[in-house]
Design brief:
It contains 13 helices and 18 strands. By secondary structure, the protein is an alpha/beta fold. The protein has a 7-stranded mixed sheet, with helices on both faces. α4 runs parallel beside α10, α11 runs parallel beside α13 and α12 packs across α13. Catalyzes the transfer of the alpha-amino group from S-adenosyl-L-methionine (SAM) to 7-keto-8-aminopelargonic acid (KAPA) to form 7,8-diaminopelargonic acid (DAPA). It is the only aminotransferase known to utilize SAM as an amino donor. This is Adenosylmethionine-8-amino-7-oxononanoate aminotransferase.
Length: 464
C-alpha cells in the first residue's frame, strides 16, 4: 500500500484528527494546505491566497501571514472573466435559469438555453462553421475536435489517418489527447511517455503589432515566414498520409509561452490542409471572443478553420463550458458515416445553467462594445508596460489586443513577483519567464495603468 506521504514531506491537513471539527482546523489557508492540490503545484507548495470577495474587476484576498489586499484581477481568472465579477446581467441569467431547472441530460432532450446559445455561436462564427457540439471544458473540446477529425478521415475512406500535426510551443489542455498535441519537449506534459505520437512543426515566426492602434496589423520577417512555410510543406509531404488534421492556436500561443506569430502562417496552413485533405482545427479557447483584438483570432489572417474550439470567456468565467464548431461539409461526412454520430457525450453536455449564462455573456459582449473595450485595454497596456522594456532582466515586451506580456531573461520568482504586485494593488500569476496580463475588458484606463505600473515595479523590485 502506498505511503501517505513521502519522507521529508509534511502534509499537515492530510487527515482530520478524531473528534475534531472543521472549525478547529484554523484559517482557510491552513485548512487548504496538504488537503487540496492546486494547478501544477505540490501539496506542500507555497500557500495560496484566500479569496474573501470579488466585485467588478477586483479581488479581495488574504495572505497566509494575515495581510489583506484589494487588487485588480489582471488575469481575468485565467482569461475567462472578461466581464468581471458579480455582473448583474450574468447574475440574473444564472438565477433565472436556476428557477426553471439547473440541469437535464442532453441525450434525447433539448432546451432553450442550448439552442439559443448554439444559434448565437453560429451567427458569430464565420461561414461555413454551422454545427455545434457542447463540451464540459476546453480540454474536452479539444478531445472532441481530435476525435471528430479521426472519424471524418475514416468516413472519407482514409482510416489510416489518425495522427496530428501541431506546433512547438503549443498548449491545448491537460487530457490525454490534448496533451499529445502540446509541445512535446518544453511543455508541461513530457512526463507522460504513453501519449500518442504526433508530428510537430517549429514555433511559427514572431509577429509584432504595428500601424494604427485602432486597425493594427501583425508584422513579421517575410524571410522567416517563407522558411517556416517550407518546413510545413515538407512535413505534410512526408507525413500527410497518416495525418487526420492540423491543430493550432491561431496567432497567439497561450500557456506555451504567450507567443504572438505571423498570420501568414495560418494562410499557409489552410492551403496545405486543403491540398492534402486534412482538417484544420483552430483552438480559440484562449483567443476567442475578442481577446486578441479580433472576435476570433483566425480573423487576423482571414482564415476559417474546418473545426473551431471555444471556451474560457464563453460564460464570462461563471461556469465551465466549451463548444466545438464544425463546417457543414465536415458534418455531412460524419452524418453519412457508419456511426452517423460524433462519438462523444458528456453527462453535463449543454448544461442549462452554463448555456444560459453563456448566452447572456455573448449578448453582453455585443452590447458593451467589446471592440472599444479591447482597444482601450490594448492602448493602455502598450503605454503602461513600455517602461518595463528598460529593465535589466527584461528580454521583450509585447502587446496584442487585451494581452500584455513581459518576458524575462530568467525564470520568474513567482511568489515574490506575485506578492510585490499585490502590494501595488494588482493580482498576477506569472509562469516560466513571463509576467503577463489578460485583464477583464471592462477595466478602466486607470485600472490598466495600474496593472502595467504594478508589473513593471514588481519585476524591478524582485529581478534587479
Amino acid at each position: 500500500m502506498p505511503e501517505a506521504a513521502a519522507p521529508g514531506i509534511s502534509l499537515p491537513n492530510a487527515a482530520l484528527p478524531a473528534g475534531a471539527s472543521l472549525v478547529d482546523r484554523g484559517s482557510l489557508i491552513d485548512r487548504d494546505r496538504g488537503l487540496l492540490w492546486h494547478p501544477y503545484a505540490p501539496l506542500d507548495g507555497p500557500a495560496p491566497y484566500a479569496v474573501t470577495g470579488a466585485d467588478g474587476v477586483r479581488l479581495r484576498l488574504q495572505a497566509a501571514d494575515g495581510a489583506r489586499f484589494e487588487a485588480v484581477d489582471a488575469m481575468s481568472s485565467w482569461w475567462s472573466a472578461i466581464h468581471g465579477y458579480r455582473h448583474p446581467v450574468l447574475d440574473d441569467a444564472l438565477r433565472e435559469q436556476a428557477g426553471k431547472f439547473s440541469h437535464v441530460m442532453f441525450g434525447g432532450l433539448t432546451h432553450e438555453p442550448a439552442v439559443r446559445l448554439a444559434e448565437q455561436l453560429v451567427a458569430l462564427a464565420p461561414d461555413p462553421l454551422r454545427h455545434v457540439f457542447f463540451a464540459d471544458s476546453g480540454s474536452v473540446s479539444v478531445e472532441v475536435a481530435l476525435k471528430l477529425a479521426v472519424q471524418y478521415q475514416a468516413a472519407a475512406g482514409r482510416p489510416g489517418r489518425h495522427a496530428f500535426l501541431a506546433l512547438r510551443g503549443g498548449y491545448h489542455g491537460d487530457t490525454f489527447g490534448a496533451m499529445s498535441v502540446c509541445d512535446p519537449v518544453d511543455g508541461m506534459h513530457s512526463a507522460f511517455p504513453s501519449l500518442p505520437a504526433q508530428h510537430f512543426l517549429p514555433r511559427p515566426p514572431a509577429a509584432r503589432l504595428s500601424g494604427d492602434p485602432s486597425d493594427g496589423v501583425l508584422r513579421s520577417d517575410p524571410t522567416d515566414v517563407a522558411a517556416w512555410v517550407a518546413e510545413l510543406e515538407a512535413a505534410v509531404g512526408l507525413h500527410g498520409h497518416e495525418l487526420a488534421g492540423i491543430i493550432v492556436e491561431p496567432v497567439l500561443q497561450g500557456a506555451g509561452g504567450m507567443h504572438v506569430y505571423a498570420p501568414e502562417c495560418l494562410q499557409a496552413l489552410r492551403r496545405v490542409a486543403d491540398e492534402h485533405g486534412l482538417l484544420l482545427i483552430f483552438d480559440e479557447i484562449a483567443t476567442g471572443f475578442g481577446r486578441t483584438g479580433r472576435l476570433f483570432a483566425g480573423e487576423w489572417a482571414g482564415v476559417v478553420p474546418d473545426v473551431m474550439c471555444v471556451g474560457k470567456a464563453l460564460t464570462g468565467g461563471y461556469l465551465t463550458l466549451a463548444a466545438v464548431l464544425c463546417s457543414a461539409g465536415v458534418a455531412a461526412v460524419i452524418t453519412a458515416s457508419e456511426f452517423r454520430a460524433l462519438l462523444h457525450g458528456p453527462t453535463f453536455m449543454a448544461n442549462p445553467l452554463a448555456c444560459a449564462v453563456a448566452s447572456a455573456s455573448l449578448d453582453l459582449l455585443a452590447d458593451a462594445g467589446w471592440q472599444d473595450q479591447v482597444l482601450r485595454v490594448q492602448q493602455g497596456l502598450r503605454a503602461s508596460l513600455a517602461p518595463a522594456a528598460g529593465l535589466p532582466a527584461v528580454r521583450d515586451v509585447r502587446v496584442v489586443g487585451a494581452v500584455g506580456v513581459v518576458e524575462l531573461d530568467r525564470p520568474v520568482n513567482v511568489p515574490a513577483v506575485t506578492r510585490a504586485a499585490l502590494e501595488r494593488g494588482v493580482w498576477v500569476r506569472p509562469f516560466r519567464n513571463l509576467v503577463y496580463t489578460m485583464p477583464p475588458y471592462l477595466c478602466s484606463a486607470g485600472d490598466v495603468a495600474a496593472i502595467g505600473a504594478a508589473i513593471t515595479a514588481a519585476i524591478q523590485a524582485v529581478h534587479r
